[in-house]
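tool_call: predict_structure(chain=1)
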Amino acid sequence: MNVDYFIEMFLGGLTRGSIYAMIALGYTMVYGIIELINFAHGEIYMIGAFTGLIVVGLLTLAGWNTVAILVIASFAAVIWAASYGWTMEKIAYKPLRKAPRLSALISAIGMSLFLQNYVLLAQTSDFLPFPNLIPDFEFLKPVEHIVRASELVIYITTAIVMVSLTLLIKFTRMGKAMRATSQDREMAMLVGVDVDKVISTTFVIGSATAALGGILIASHIGQINFYIGFIAGIKAFVAAVLGGIGSMPGAVLGSLVLGWTESFFTGYISSDYEDVFAFLFLVLILIFRPSGLLGRKETDKV
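tool_result:
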């Protein structure tokens, strides 16, 4: 029984960490390119979930089966959220590219508040039910009390996204342009890299992964509201900093560590203070390793 409970806590932490990773990857990609903390990123996650809910409702009324609804709703949410990410970069961040970093940070906070209240006015402040679109798998019947089908889909999807992003950055032309822009934006422009296109693409990719995470976790939990993006966004930001902001492997590792920390603390100590313990853990990590678990210490050039 104790072993089963431990495994349940471990898998629960893996589920949390996987969703944090889907969002944290967007944080760390944007920071790696333009050194900006996009605090509106969590709201993109929330918009993806609401978009999915709207599409799910329409397709359910049309009599579609659940698997088709999940695929089409996920695709619609990804496209719609990516368009929001692209528009947000053009409106809120591009005009401030040469301004002090504080200006862009304030703009990011403003976009976060705007998107929250926009969805609040367009939808409702109440929690809305989100149907479980992931069918049960027969081979999980013996262990369904430990791991659910929705959790397995989250694990697999997160792994596919991580591998795809790694391959994109390492082996594609756009990935090379991203790395060049991250290392030296001015030099990248001098050798012909379209930096504006690279930055916009980074926002689009990060928004798409966040929206996909929003659909999966909404289907898993079964409810959404306008505030879920703020909570998830803060947790994902903590995970990105924990692993080393700007490092994609660090974002994944930080997300998993944070997910397991919350899960085990909730399961074995108390669920009332899981957020307190998570942030305390972050403070301790940053005291002893300010660059994060996998972050590299930057040296000042003289």
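agent: The chain has eleven helices and two strands. Proceeding to next step.
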